[in-house]
Specification:
Length: 268
Amino acid sequence: MAAKKIAVLGGGNLGIAIAKGIVNAGQASASDIIITRRNIVKITRLKKEKFVLTTDNVAAVREASIIMLCVQPKQLAGLLAEIGSTLQAKKHILVSTITGVAIDEITSQLGKPVPVVRAIPNTAIAIGASMTCICTKDATDKQLSDIRKLFDALGETLIIEEHLMKAATVLAASGIAFFMRYLRAATQGGIQLGFDAEESQLIAAQTAKGAALLLAANDSHPELEIDKVTTPQGCTIAGLNEMEHQGLSSALIKGIVTSFDKINSIKK
Protein backbone atom coordinates (compact mmCIF):
# COMPACT_ATOMS: atom_id res chain seq x y z
CA MET A 1 0.00 0.00 0.00
CA ALA A 2 2.80 2.42 0.86
CA ALA A 3 4.10 2.41 -2.71
CA LYS A 4 0.76 3.44 -4.22
CA LYS A 5 -0.17 7.08 -4.64
CA ILE A 6 -3.51 8.17 -3.25
CA ALA A 7 -5.65 11.03 -4.53
CA VAL A 8 -8.10 12.56 -2.06
CA LEU A 9 -10.59 14.45 -4.20
CA GLY A 10 -12.21 16.89 -1.82
CA GLY A 11 -9.98 18.38 0.85
CA GLY A 12 -12.72 19.09 3.39
CA ASN A 13 -12.77 17.93 7.01
CA LEU A 14 -13.23 14.23 6.19
CA GLY A 15 -10.80 14.17 3.28
CA ILE A 16 -8.08 15.80 5.36
CA ALA A 17 -8.81 13.51 8.30
CA ILE A 18 -8.39 10.47 6.05
CA ALA A 19 -5.17 11.81 4.55
CA LYS A 20 -3.67 12.56 7.96
CA GLY A 21 -4.83 9.24 9.34
CA ILE A 22 -3.14 7.36 6.51
CA VAL A 23 0.14 9.17 7.15
CA ASN A 24 -0.06 8.82 10.94
CA ALA A 25 -0.64 5.08 10.52
CA GLY A 26 2.41 4.75 8.28
CA GLN A 27 0.35 3.53 5.31
CA ALA A 28 1.78 6.18 2.99
CA SER A 29 3.99 9.24 3.17
CA ALA A 30 2.40 12.66 2.84
CA SER A 31 4.27 13.20 -0.42
CA ASP A 32 2.37 10.23 -1.90
CA ILE A 33 -1.02 11.75 -1.09
CA ILE A 34 -2.52 14.32 -3.44
CA ILE A 35 -5.32 16.44 -1.96
CA THR A 36 -7.57 18.52 -4.20
CA ARG A 37 -9.81 21.44 -3.40
CA ARG A 38 -11.31 24.22 -5.48
CA ASN A 39 -10.27 26.89 -2.99
CA ILE A 40 -6.82 25.60 -2.24
CA VAL A 41 -5.93 28.61 -0.10
CA LYS A 42 -7.95 27.07 2.73
CA ILE A 43 -5.62 24.06 2.96
CA THR A 44 -2.21 25.58 2.16
CA ARG A 45 -1.16 24.80 5.74
CA LEU A 46 -0.90 21.15 4.65
CA LYS A 47 2.11 21.99 2.47
CA LYS A 48 4.20 22.14 5.63
CA GLU A 49 3.31 18.49 6.22
CA LYS A 50 4.50 17.61 2.68
CA PHE A 51 1.06 16.77 1.23
CA VAL A 52 0.72 17.47 -2.48
CA LEU A 53 -2.01 20.06 -3.07
CA THR A 54 -3.75 20.95 -6.33
CA THR A 55 -6.99 22.26 -7.78
CA ASP A 56 -6.64 19.87 -10.74
CA ASN A 57 -8.65 16.69 -10.13
CA VAL A 58 -7.65 15.19 -13.48
CA ALA A 59 -3.94 15.61 -12.77
CA ALA A 60 -4.42 14.03 -9.35
CA VAL A 61 -6.16 11.01 -10.88
CA ARG A 62 -3.39 10.56 -13.44
CA GLU A 63 -0.79 10.40 -10.68
CA ALA A 64 -2.63 8.07 -8.31
CA SER A 65 -4.07 4.55 -8.29
CA ILE A 66 -6.40 4.84 -5.27
CA ILE A 67 -8.94 7.61 -5.74
CA MET A 68 -10.82 8.78 -2.63
CA LEU A 69 -14.08 10.56 -3.43
CA CYS A 70 -14.67 12.94 -0.50
CA VAL A 71 -16.88 15.65 -2.01
CA GLN A 72 -20.46 16.58 -1.15
CA PRO A 73 -23.18 14.48 -2.82
CA LYS A 74 -24.29 17.43 -4.97
CA GLN A 75 -20.74 17.77 -6.31
CA LEU A 76 -20.33 14.14 -7.33
CA ALA A 77 -21.88 14.24 -10.82
CA GLY A 78 -19.64 17.11 -11.87
CA LEU A 79 -16.56 15.43 -10.41
CA LEU A 80 -17.23 12.13 -12.18
CA ALA A 81 -17.82 13.94 -15.48
CA GLU A 82 -14.51 15.73 -14.98
CA ILE A 83 -12.36 12.68 -14.20
CA GLY A 84 -14.29 9.97 -16.05
CA SER A 85 -12.20 9.90 -19.22
CA THR A 86 -8.99 9.71 -17.17
CA LEU A 87 -10.04 6.73 -15.06
CA GLN A 88 -8.72 3.33 -16.11
CA ALA A 89 -10.24 0.06 -14.93
CA LYS A 90 -6.85 -1.69 -14.73
CA LYS A 91 -5.12 1.16 -12.88
CA HIS A 92 -7.64 2.81 -10.60
CA ILE A 93 -9.96 1.90 -7.76
CA LEU A 94 -12.49 4.42 -6.50
CA VAL A 95 -13.20 4.67 -2.79
CA SER A 96 -16.38 6.66 -2.18
CA THR A 97 -17.06 8.17 1.25
CA ILE A 98 -20.16 9.98 -0.04
CA THR A 99 -23.25 9.44 2.08
CA GLY A 100 -26.28 7.93 0.37
CA VAL A 101 -24.75 7.38 -3.06
CA ALA A 102 -24.89 3.75 -4.21
CA ILE A 103 -22.19 2.00 -6.18
CA ASP A 104 -24.54 1.56 -9.15
CA GLU A 105 -25.11 5.32 -9.26
CA ILE A 106 -21.38 5.94 -9.53
CA THR A 107 -20.71 3.29 -12.16
CA SER A 108 -23.71 4.34 -14.25
CA GLN A 109 -22.47 7.94 -14.32
CA LEU A 110 -18.98 6.80 -15.30
CA GLY A 111 -20.18 4.49 -18.05
CA LYS A 112 -17.09 2.30 -17.66
CA PRO A 113 -16.17 -0.65 -15.40
CA VAL A 114 -13.95 1.04 -12.81
CA PRO A 115 -14.05 -0.87 -9.48
CA VAL A 116 -15.73 1.02 -6.63
CA VAL A 117 -15.57 0.50 -2.87
CA ARG A 118 -17.88 2.44 -0.59
CA ALA A 119 -16.46 3.38 2.80
CA ILE A 120 -18.24 5.03 5.71
CA PRO A 121 -15.68 6.12 8.34
CA ASN A 122 -16.21 8.53 11.19
CA THR A 123 -14.20 11.58 12.25
CA ALA A 124 -12.09 9.53 14.68
CA ILE A 125 -10.21 8.36 11.59
CA ALA A 126 -7.84 11.30 12.10
CA ILE A 127 -6.54 9.67 15.30
CA GLY A 128 -6.62 6.07 14.06
CA ALA A 129 -9.79 5.18 15.95
CA SER A 130 -12.49 5.13 13.28
CA MET A 131 -15.24 2.59 12.87
CA THR A 132 -15.33 2.16 9.09
CA CYS A 133 -17.84 0.04 7.20
CA ILE A 134 -17.02 -0.89 3.61
CA CYS A 135 -18.73 -2.70 0.76
CA THR A 136 -18.22 -3.38 -2.93
CA LYS A 137 -19.82 -5.11 -5.90
CA ASP A 138 -17.13 -5.29 -8.55
CA ALA A 139 -13.76 -4.89 -6.84
CA THR A 140 -11.59 -8.00 -6.74
CA ASP A 141 -10.82 -9.76 -3.48
CA LYS A 142 -7.28 -8.34 -3.67
CA GLN A 143 -8.55 -4.79 -4.19
CA LEU A 144 -11.04 -5.07 -1.35
CA SER A 145 -8.33 -6.54 0.88
CA ASP A 146 -6.00 -3.63 0.07
CA ILE A 147 -8.63 -1.04 0.91
CA ARG A 148 -9.58 -2.90 4.09
CA LYS A 149 -5.94 -2.96 5.19
CA LEU A 150 -5.78 0.79 4.60
CA PHE A 151 -8.77 1.43 6.86
CA ASP A 152 -7.74 -1.26 9.38
CA ALA A 153 -4.74 0.94 10.13
CA LEU A 154 -7.15 3.76 10.92
CA GLY A 155 -9.34 1.92 13.43
CA GLU A 156 -11.74 -1.00 13.07
CA THR A 157 -13.14 -2.08 9.69
CA LEU A 158 -16.20 -4.16 8.92
CA ILE A 159 -17.23 -5.45 5.48
CA ILE A 160 -21.01 -5.27 5.14
CA GLU A 161 -23.68 -5.55 2.46
CA GLU A 162 -24.48 -2.33 0.65
CA HIS A 163 -28.07 -2.15 1.85
CA LEU A 164 -26.70 -1.62 5.38
CA MET A 165 -24.56 1.40 4.49
CA LYS A 166 -27.13 3.99 5.55
CA ALA A 167 -27.57 2.21 8.85
CA ALA A 168 -23.79 2.20 9.27
CA THR A 169 -23.74 5.95 8.65
CA VAL A 170 -26.17 6.49 11.51
CA LEU A 171 -24.61 4.03 13.96
CA ALA A 172 -20.93 4.85 13.31
CA ALA A 173 -20.67 8.33 11.79
CA SER A 174 -23.64 10.02 13.49
CA GLY A 175 -22.85 7.84 16.49
CA ILE A 176 -19.84 10.02 17.30
CA ALA A 177 -22.25 12.89 18.00
CA PHE A 178 -24.56 10.66 20.04
CA PHE A 179 -21.73 9.56 22.33
CA MET A 180 -20.45 13.14 22.58
CA ARG A 181 -23.87 14.20 23.82
CA TYR A 182 -23.75 11.50 26.51
CA LEU A 183 -20.28 12.68 27.53
CA ARG A 184 -21.51 16.26 27.77
CA ALA A 185 -24.39 15.18 30.00
CA ALA A 186 -22.10 13.06 32.18
CA THR A 187 -19.70 15.99 32.50
CA GLN A 188 -22.54 18.27 33.57
CA GLY A 189 -23.64 15.70 36.12
CA GLY A 190 -20.11 15.52 37.50
CA ILE A 191 -20.00 19.29 37.86
CA GLN A 192 -23.22 19.17 39.86
CA LEU A 193 -21.57 16.60 42.13
CA GLY A 194 -18.67 18.94 42.85
CA PHE A 195 -15.96 18.42 40.25
CA ASP A 196 -14.75 21.30 38.11
CA ALA A 197 -15.44 21.08 34.38
CA GLU A 198 -12.02 19.77 33.33
CA GLU A 199 -11.93 17.09 36.02
CA SER A 200 -15.46 15.98 35.26
CA GLN A 201 -14.85 15.73 31.52
CA LEU A 202 -11.63 13.76 32.07
CA ILE A 203 -13.41 11.26 34.31
CA ALA A 204 -16.37 10.91 31.93
CA ALA A 205 -14.22 10.52 28.79
CA GLN A 206 -11.78 8.02 30.32
CA THR A 207 -14.64 6.00 31.81
CA ALA A 208 -16.37 5.83 28.42
CA LYS A 209 -13.10 4.75 26.82
CA GLY A 210 -12.62 2.08 29.47
CA ALA A 211 -16.15 0.76 28.99
CA ALA A 212 -15.63 0.38 25.25
CA LEU A 213 -12.23 -1.28 25.72
CA LEU A 214 -13.69 -3.74 28.23
CA LEU A 215 -16.25 -4.93 25.67
CA ALA A 216 -13.55 -5.33 23.04
CA ALA A 217 -11.03 -7.03 25.34
CA ASN A 218 -13.51 -9.42 26.95
CA ASP A 219 -15.66 -9.95 23.85
CA SER A 220 -18.61 -9.68 26.17
CA HIS A 221 -22.13 -8.25 26.25
CA PRO A 222 -22.73 -4.85 27.92
CA GLU A 223 -25.07 -6.42 30.49
CA LEU A 224 -22.29 -8.75 31.68
CA GLU A 225 -20.04 -5.76 32.36
CA ILE A 226 -22.93 -3.91 34.02
CA ASP A 227 -23.51 -6.87 36.35
CA LYS A 228 -19.89 -6.61 37.54
CA VAL A 229 -20.47 -3.14 38.99
CA THR A 230 -24.03 -3.46 40.32
CA THR A 231 -24.51 -4.71 43.85
CA PRO A 232 -27.78 -5.32 45.72
CA GLN A 233 -29.29 -2.05 46.95
CA GLY A 234 -26.22 -0.23 45.65
CA CYS A 235 -25.80 3.22 44.10
CA THR A 236 -25.13 1.90 40.59
CA ILE A 237 -28.38 -0.02 40.23
CA ALA A 238 -30.27 2.89 41.75
CA GLY A 239 -28.84 5.23 39.13
CA LEU A 240 -29.41 2.78 36.28
CA ASN A 241 -33.03 2.21 37.27
CA GLU A 242 -33.70 5.94 37.46
CA MET A 243 -32.14 6.46 34.01
CA GLU A 244 -34.37 3.72 32.60
CA HIS A 245 -37.45 5.21 34.31
CA GLN A 246 -36.58 8.47 32.54
CA GLY A 247 -36.34 6.64 29.20
CA LEU A 248 -32.59 6.45 28.57
CA SER A 249 -32.54 3.30 26.43
CA SER A 250 -35.76 4.08 24.58
CA ALA A 251 -34.60 7.64 23.85
CA LEU A 252 -31.32 6.38 22.42
CA ILE A 253 -33.03 3.78 20.25
CA LYS A 254 -35.62 6.28 19.07
CA GLY A 255 -32.87 8.77 18.22
CA ILE A 256 -30.96 6.21 16.15
CA VAL A 257 -34.12 5.12 14.31
CA THR A 258 -35.13 8.75 13.68
CA SER A 259 -31.70 9.46 12.17
CA PHE A 260 -32.09 6.39 9.98
CA ASP A 261 -35.55 7.53 8.83
CA LYS A 262 -34.07 10.95 8.01
CA ILE A 263 -31.17 9.61 5.98
CA ASN A 264 -33.61 7.51 3.96
CA SER A 265 -35.76 10.56 3.21
CA ILE A 266 -32.93 12.84 2.07
CA LYS A 267 -33.11 13.52 -1.64
CA LYS A 268 -29.85 14.16 -3.44
